[in-house]
Fold these 3 entries.
Entry 1:
Amino acid sequence: MKILIIQHKMIGDVLLTSLLCENVKKKYPNSTVDYLINRNTLPVLENNPYIDNKIIFDEQENNNLFKLIKFSKQVNNNKYDVIIDAYSKIQSWIDVFINDAPKKISYKKFGRQFLYTDNVVKHKEPFTQLGLAIEHRLALLSPLGIDKPIETNPKLYLTEKEKLMARNLFKAHGVDKSKKTVMISLLGSKLSKTYPLDKMTELVEFLGQNYDVNILFNYFPKQLDEAKIIYNKLSELTKSKIYFDLLAEDLRSFIAIINECDFIIGNDGGAVNMAKAVNKKSFVIFSPYVSKNVWATFEDNLNHISVHLKDYFPKKYNNMNDNKIKNRVNEYYSYFDFSLFKGKLKKFLDNHVESN
């Protein structure tokens, strides 16, 4: 059996959907499992033993309908028996429509059910601590006879060389490994997913003033100015615990660095998903327009905790959908004061870290 799994776009999505590859391969070890993903997400799939071939989609090379069709025809030459479309948007619809696979699986959506032989209905509330993002993906396995997934935790695979590089980097920066190390997901992938800088400054200051920890900042090079704004507003005590220049050169080195940390705190996004995939504890702040039900994975109120504005002001969400909230995200963020969840963060830290 030859199977193609499709997941375009973001790192977190690609990492979570890689669970399908592992489950299929463990259920059907003689199958061939190919994974169609965007080029920028390749690092999270390195060394994954459950993927036979990576089919690379390059958005710059396939930026019009003609090129999309040409790409899909090339993919069809691989003669798949099954396609699992975990993305289910225009790019993957073309792949699916052109492909001759006799079995095509995706989510049930109005107006596009004709593309698939199996349309899986999404449920609205999570049944488990996995969260809807994982539960929905695992549900795509049921048409293949996998009703009880073998694996439910996405994984990242580091080499010993990569692990040693991170340990040496910590040593070079003088990080005290006798203390817990906290990675702060300081900034989101975009402003609409970034907890306001003044409020994040309060959070980091609370951590630095009250807990004997090493603190690392995670941010993109293009976000350096924003990171400095937060750093420059901190007390000298808190600054003394931050290793501001201990940064990853690329995505693989980031994974190796987070593997040396004990937990991650901050904005939801790919960094959080990667941290969880190397078994790190998490305290996550969701953007007001992102669904916590979907992306709050492994939520157990101990090792994995998240907060959302809706937890505190549910009435502000009456008659509002995600797009409406996104258009007013700055207003909604203005309500999301650190004081609202300070006690929850303290409980999380007290369970895992020694206080000053």
Entry 2:
Amino acid sequence: MALRAWLESTLGQRHPGEAFQLQTLSGDASFRQYFRVQLGKTSYIAVNAPPETEKNAEFLAVQSLFARAGLRVPEILAHNLVDGFFLQSDLGDALLLPELNKGSVNHWYNKALDSLLKLQQIPPNKAKLPCYSTEQMRQDLERFPEWFVTGLLKRQLSAAETGLFNDFCEQLIALCQAQPRVVTHYDFQSRNLMICADQELAVIDFQDAMLAPVSYDLVSLLRDCYIKWPPRQVQAWVESYTSQARNCGVIAADIDDQCFMGWFDAMGLQRHVRVIGTFARLHLRDNKPGYLKDIPLVCEYVSEVLGQHPEFAEFGAWFEQLMATAASQAWYQNEPTAND
């Protein structure tokens, strides 16, 4: 195993003569593999990130950017970009998601919003990150008809349906691109936030960071694809964030709550329609069927927001037709959300 040989060489300089053990950890939606490296009472995290599929140089650059901004991120102790190997500090096993409940969520989300505002105050012109372009937004949305409608539901779009979807995309993209751009994690949600031993939050899985609309990371957190909270509570968090964002200059002082909530809803639709396609692709292309169980919640978000915006009524009616087809399939289990 090439990773083990690299670790033997790398750790030999830090711990001469000491043997180590490797424990396989669960992976994520990418092709990265994670291992805990144990040497007595000392532990590290080793990562095998195939350079042909993973953004390893970007990971290093964003780690440095976020650390300088005061965010808690894994420390990179050694790396080999040719083979895609990393040795990182061990932040533990406590992802935020399992720790969230009605009693704890305000505490943890306040900490998450503090981290988010630190991230968003990084000057965009100093970040050297790619922009989430109109073309990329459009390509991301195309995952929905390709992988979800055609791939998973086995339904071919008519010319009229294709036109309806394209019109919806253009309308949505315009609303998203009207927002100010900030440094964005691009997947700021409870599986990418960790609770450290000192009870502070750390941010992981940030290699896709880019300059994107200001509401992108907020909707990723508050309308999380893996856990749902009552809409009134979400709105209260959005309003609290909006006040703080105005105070620290992330958004202009004249952006009122209603305007920002419109941005938030539009960005949520763009993200969640894309994610439905992404989860279908992870199942069909990458043999990761575990993501199928997460599709119903994301569809629920889309249905709820479409129902609140008459300008999307025609697309909303078509979406509900698709949901009727999805609900008849064995993988679709839309159980009541425990946090409602």
Entry 3:
Amino acid sequence: MKTPRVTLDQWRTLQAVIDHGGFAQAAEALHRSQSSVSYAIGRLQEQLGVPLLRIEGRRAVLTEAGEMLLRRSRQLVKQAAQLEELAHHMEQGWEAEVRLVVDAAYPSARLIRALTDFMPQSRGCRIRLREEVLSGVEDVLLDGTADVAISGLNINGYLGAELGTVEFVAVAHAAHPLHVLQRKLSTQDLEAHLQIVVRDSGQRQPRDSGWLGAEQRWTVGSLATSVSFVASGLGFAWLPRHLIQRELADGILKPLPLIQGAIRRPRFYLYTNKDKTLGPATQILIQLIKTYDADPSAPARG
């Protein structure tokens, strides 16, 4: 790639000439002499080899090429200013990126509200969001590749801040044989049918959370796949209510009438990287997550 010959200052000067209506006005706005402004524009056109301005009466007017290049240069100057601002924030301890790992069962609507509010406060800080299942969140946190983690598990060696619960419902397709029995169901009833289980994405100590020891078990890679399988009549599963609200409302899925354990409400926890000092962006994000977890119905203010 060729090294640019044109400087950001030259683009700013061209912008000032157009925005302020002429060379004299641009010189006044930039606190420079009119001759230096004229020289900068002349040098700019010479370096580009394209005429950017033409004189009509006493006004400098953009050529067609000038209009296109000026439009692009505004983006360039804006990005450069944002880059300098980001460097300034980083000098003050502001993070360039926050790495967030979340259990896939945690309601994304709560995260979306938190991130919507975070965006105007982020000062250019990026969010790297990663979804894992069960102990997969723990693995990422232990590896040190997450700044903030949300998990439904108690992670040894970490003090987690309590978040809310997520409701899991035992469900099957409305036409599933378990519903045909039309009575309360026992564990023995379930064991005779196919159970759909989501694979734990962790590698250290993967868990068979929720598995009853059914004769038939299909393990899938995501909650979305589990919902699709159960909604197609392939088996039963405990699924987060927030992921199956439509299927329940449409009567595609029906809760299983279990003697006990039809509803599970595991509590989720927020963990932070204990080997890293929390920066201001991370602290803001954590507070927003807690706020919208405590009141999931609250509209985002961003």
